[in-house]
UniProtKB/TrEMBL annotation, chain A:
Belongs to the purine/pyrimidine phosphoribosyltransferase family. PyrR subfamily. SUPFAM superfamilies: PRTase-like. This is Unannotated protein. Residues 1-21 are annotated as: Disordered. Keywords: Transcription, Transcription regulation. PANTHER family: BIFUNCTIONAL PROTEIN PYRR. The lineage of its organism: unclassified sequences, metagenomes, ecological metagenomes. HAMAP family: PyrR. The keyword Magnesium does not apply. It comes from freshwater metagenome.
Length: 192, 312
């Protein structure tokens, strides 16, 4: 059985006896995103040619939040898009058909741009592998970087993040759930 | 969803989900690399026992853009022309390890029959005068993109109803999406028993094009299917055009934003005048590109997941 690739959807976990431990609250998330935004700017020496691509589902609002922060610091808007990797997953065949989402690139495209993939949780690395394949079909960025809110370890592929909100050592059996106000009505990261 | 045989098998949720997937697929047409890897390693056979340009090429491109291997088998040039039975032809092809079978056949019910013989997923691409579900889906999808929602909108379907599988599938699909449907045909081309059917299914019938057009939010013209006609259903082509064609004069009865659909191939000058077919409000070419997106969505949902899985 393939390991679950992303944080499990919180709606699935309804057992009341299981104690959820909050790892990041709303302010922690906000601080982590602000730091990532500054790291991105520093690494890229400004916001020119930067494209933030959020991975569905929760990477999309994260990418938007980072873009807002960068715009606030730099005074110019930064290109944001969303990337759906459903068609590129390696576990399509072992699961019931998944609903695909929209892929929307910013008007300038991604050719010769520095693309930053943004996702909520980095786990096995399989989503990112799929995202890299998807990018190759969409254009040729000059560089691709990865920013995640939580890195929980247990990689199954040689992939690492360039910018991490929080390193969260976890057991394989544990569940890391990211909730964001845009999707779930609240901002928090819990482990259970 | 294992097969797509009839619009009747689809719930409102299924249709909405297919439309949402089609909207995602639509963007692929504008990409530089028109390829998604979702069906890599799957094989789709297009089996066409009737002539077709758009449906067959549309299914072929849809399969190829999803990275499936697509093979075309047509009646002409296959063993069917040597007298092989449908069952033997289908079983032979499926013995080669086919995952998806897209079938068009002149006999109503052929797709359903085939689905009982084989393990592969069967898509009905038109069976006689019965159904053509992907056409209905792409028509409704096109109209929904033009009109926003179909809820409460009035769609007029005009033409050769008796011989039309497109009409049979479309009425079901449109009413499921909440549209009000009026079907118009000369009495000779009105299917027998339509009074009971329309009462049960909740659509209206009319013989008067000129009364229906001014209040339509969308118009769907049907092809006069001479190849299926065994007798004289109307005195002359000219008479049909005068009574039921979408002529230049009738075009003026339509609002400027009312989409005009035609499943193709068009008999220009018979059921649809060139002025109407090429009008700015015509959706005919949009239907073709929507057809690709819809067929990609259908193939994806039938073939991408594990074989016993439903739709998540």
């Amino acid at each position: 059985m393939p390991a679950p690739d992303k944080a499990d959807h919180p709606a699935r976990d309804t057992s009341p006896e299981r104690a959820d431990r909050t790892v990041l609250d709303a302010r922690d998330i906000s601080r982590a995103l602000t730091r990532i935004s500054h790291e991105l700017l520093e690494r890229n020496k400004g916001a020119t040619d930067l494209v933030l691509l959020g991975l569905h589902t929760r990477g999309v609002p994260l990418a938007r939040r980072i873009a807002e922060r960068i715009a606030a610091v730099e005074g110019t808007p930064v290109a944001v898009g969303e990337l759906d990797v459903t068609m590129y997953r390696d576990d399509l065949r072992s699961q019931p058909t998944r609903r695909a989402h929209k892929t929307a690139l910013p008007p300038g495209g991604i050719d010769r741009k520095v693309v930053v993939l943004v996702d909520d949780v980095l786990f096995s690395g399989r989503t990112i592998r799929a995202a890299l394949d998807a990018l190759a079909d969409l254009g040729r960025p000059s560089a691709v970087r990865l920013a995640v809110l939580v890195d929980r370890g247990h990689r199954e592929l040689p992939i690492r993040a360039d910018h991490v909100g929080k390193n969260l050592p976890s057991a394989l059996a544990e569940r890391v759930s990211v909730r964001l106000s845009e999707v779930d009505g609240t901002d928090e990261v819990t482990i259970s | 969803m294992k097969h797509l045989l009839s619009v009747d098998d689809l719930s409102r949720d299924d249709i909405d989900m297919l439309f949402a997937t089609a909207a995602d697929m639509h963007d692929v047409q504008n990409r530089e690399v028109k390829k998604l890897p979702a069906l890599r390693g799957r094989t789709v056979v297009n089996m066409f026992f009737e002539d077709s340009t758009r449906t067959r090429s549309s299914f072929e491109i849809a399969g190829k853009w999803l990275s499936a291997d697509v093979i075309n088998v047509s009646a002409k040039g296959s063993s069917a022309s040597k007298g092989e039975s449908l069952r033997d032809t289908v079983l032979t092809v499926c013995a080669m390890g086919v995952d998806g079978l897209v079938i068009r056949h002149p006999a109503s019910g052929a797709a359903l029959q085939v689905s009982e013989w084989v393990d592969a997923s069967v898509v009905n691409a038109g069976d006689g005068m019965h159904e053509h579900p992907t056409q209905a889906l792409l028509d409704a999808y096109t109209l929904q993109r033009r009109l926003g929602s179909l809820e409460g909108r009035h769609v007029a379907i005009i033409g050769d109803l008796t011989h039309s599988r497109v009409f049979r599938s479309n009425v079901q699909c449109l009413t499921k999406l909440g549209a009000r449907v009026t079907v118009v045909a000369p009495p000779t081309l009105m299917p027998s028993g339509i009074a009971a059917w329309s009462a049960a299914a909740g659509f209206e019938t009319s013989y008067d094009v000129d009364a229906v057009l001014p209040e339509a939010d969308a118009v769907m013209m049907l092809r006069v299917q001479r190849e299926r006609m065994s007798g004289a259903f109307f005195p002359s082509a000219r008479e049909y055009t005068v009574g039921y064609g979408l002529t230049r004069n009738r075009l003026a009865l339509l609002g400027p934003d009312v989409p005009i659909c035609h499943p193709g191939p068009m008999n220009r000058g018979l059921e649809i005048a060139a002025d109407a077919a090429d009008a700015a409000q015509s959706a005919v070419l949009e239907q073709v590109s929507s057809g690709l997106a819809i067929r990609m969505a259908v193939l994806y949902h039938l073939l991408a997941g594990e074989s016993e899985g439903g739709i998540a």
